[in-house]
Amino acid sequence: MANDRPFAHVDPELLPVLEELKRREPVFHTAEFGTTVDDFERSVAPEYWEVGATGRRYSREFILGTFRAFPPVAGADEWECDDFGLQQLGQNTYLLTYTLKQWGRLTRRATIWQRVGNHWRILYHQGTAVTHNEDDMVPVEEKDATQAPNEAGEPKPAESAE
Predict the structure, then answer these.
(1) Is position 114 within any domain?
(2) For residue 136, is it within any domain?
(3) C-alpha dihedral over 79, 18, 23, 122, to 10 degrees?
(4) How many domains does one find in the chain?
(5) Which end of the chain, N or C, is less surrounded by CB atoms within 10 Å?
(6) Three-state SS at 134
């Protein structure tokens, strides 16, 4: 799955790790990650926290407490995960990135995974809602189309005041 796109790059020697981690995403919604609060407690590092797609920050305690009261929704088998990337951050620690299409919502996901013995746990997770599946483009305010990028994705030069 090595790819020349920087967002989905995976060094060939990391492909086995990628396959292991892909089966655990999206976190909290796959059998490989776990299906019970006990599984979640083992799979979530004590220092874990996350940033949700809304930008809110959530602690490990809040996440686990929420799952005790409201188990995670089923349906992950209907969600589409693609555009995976993987980088090794340190010994037994990896950054997994991907795009999730879920109920008409598009999010970019990033999870920091750590292998402890023969078990995986998450240290951090972030989901960022996006409106378009576009990368490397200058954001355009809808009110100011004069600054829209050209066909190559480059910003148009500013008009001279002369």
Answers:
(1) yes
(2) no
(3) -100
(4) 1
(5) C
(6) coil
The answer to whether the CB of 53 falls within 8 A of the CB of 108 is: no
The CATH number that applies at residue 34 is 3.10.450.50
Mean pLDDT of 99-110: 88
Longest CA pairwise span in the chain (Å): 69
pLDDT mean over 127-134: 83
Q: Is 107 in contact with 25 (CB distance < 8 Å)?
A: no
Does residue 144 register a pLDDT over 60? no
pLDDT at 162: 43
Top-confidence residue, 76 or 2: 76
What is the span of the domain harbouring residue 73?
6-130
HSE toward the beta carbon, residue 3, CA cutoff 13 A: 14
Say if 59 falls within a structural domain. yes
Query: Mind spelling out the 3-state secondary structure of 36-96?
Result: CHHHHHHHEEEEEEEECCCCCEEEHHHHHHHHHHCCCCCCHHHCEEEEEEEEEEECCEEEE
Neighbours of 2 (CB within 10 A): 11
C-alpha 55/C-alpha 103 separation (Å) is 19
